Amino acid sequence: MNLELLGWSNWFASSFEQLAMEGYFLARVAQEYKGGYLLYAEFGEIAGVLAGKLRHEATSSQNLPAVGDWVAATQPNNSTQAIIHQVLPRKSKFSRKVAGAKTQEQMIATNIDTVFLVCGLDDNFNLRRIERYLVLTWESGANPVIILNKVDLCEFWEQKVLEVEAIAPGVPIIAISAITLHERGLEILQPYLQLGQTIVLLGSSGVGKSTLTNQIIGKEVHVVQTVRQGDSKGRHTTTSSELLCLPSGALLIDTPGMRELQLWDVQDGLQETFADIETLAEQCRFRDCQHQHEPGCAVREALAEGILDQKRFLNYQKLQKEKNYLARKQNQRESLNTKARWKQRTKAIRNHHKR
């Protein structure tokens, strides 16, 4: 495998120079599974496991390899496994808060250039969900492309395209039917499927990500299941993220359907997604305007005149509250972790003096 075909670029080079002199080789994480990883290197595929030091020193899952990461590894003599010693700096990452009550980050994919946000044009169509995905995508550092799938099941799909354009100005929007994409229309995706480019497919279950993956590659790599007819809910066919090499020389990261997408550290992403509301807020008379009953509120005026959609504004407020709540939880968790570290140090000092 050529490193360029795996997405290697000069952006990463400086962080590997010293490691190369120390005898490490480069590999890219293609898949994560229980107990290890599948790595792509110049000499081919190889299983990988974490070095004990890397596992011990990792303070969170963010410090461990994720699909798309470049890592520095070694291969002991006669071993069929590589040892992962270090994760190279990331140029982009898509992450979310883990499902449930825990305040932890879950890495979905790293070092991505483009995010294909896939949304079904059936009953799955949801503008508020698209906004949520856009917030996390802009925060990731990658560029979003919205894929509206299943035009064959939607009589007025052109209207839905206009609705998405209204909440995502400047973002490319592509309406397709993944089932027939290989016969007609695959060229519409070609500008993003260039040599060394990494694309990640994101969306909820049943939107057609596995079908789209099969069509882009030109063969069935994922088993496809139909959605439930009653509510258009999908059945999971992809169970873990996987980096796939495409015939065009691009790389595609397919991901499981997401039934829960909670925010994680999204200050810039929120501002980018709702730039229209942020601009209006700057025109309010008071800098700390809450857009409730304050005089001279430009946001309330835009709502009253129909310039700003009420549902979009309510979703903006909802995501703002979610972001602020998460920030408080993160600060609380960091405070507890700091306290625990000081207790460990104090205990170690006391034990040292006793000896």
How many individual domains?
3
- Please give the number of β-strands: 13
Large-scale geometry: globular
Oligomer: single chain
Report, as a whole number of angstroms, the end-to-end distance: 56 Å
Portion of residues within helices: 25-40%
SSE sequence, one letter per element: HEEEHEEEEEHEHEEHEEHHHH
Strand order of the largest sheet: 10-9-8-11-13-12
CATH classification, class level of the largest domain = Alpha Beta
CATH architecture of the largest domain: 3-Layer(aba) Sandwich
Sequence stretches where pLDDT stays below 50 over 5 or more residues: 227-236
CATH-assigned fold name of the largest domain: Rossmann fold
Structure, described:
The protein is an alpha/beta fold. It has three domains: 3-89, Nucleic acid-binding proteins (OB fold (Dihydrolipoamide Acetyltransferase, E2P)); 108-228 and 239-254, 3-Layer(aba) Sandwich (Rossmann fold); 268-352, Probable gtpase engc, domain 3 (Ribonucleotide Reductase Protein R1, domain 1, Orthogonal Bundle). The protein has nine helices and 13 strands. It has helices at 10-21, 52-57, 127-140, 157-167, 209-217, 267-273, 275-282, 298-304, 310-354; strands spanning 25-33, 36-41, 44-50, 70-74, 81-87, 93-97, 105-110, 114-120, 143-149, 173-176, 198-202, 242-245, 251-254. It has a six-stranded mixed sheet, sandwiched between helices. Strands 1-2-3-5-4 form a five-stranded mixed barrel. A two-stranded antiparallel ribbon has the order 6-7. It is globular and about 70 Å long. The protein starts with 9 loop residues before the first helix and ends with a helix. Mean pLDDT is 86; it is low at 227-236.
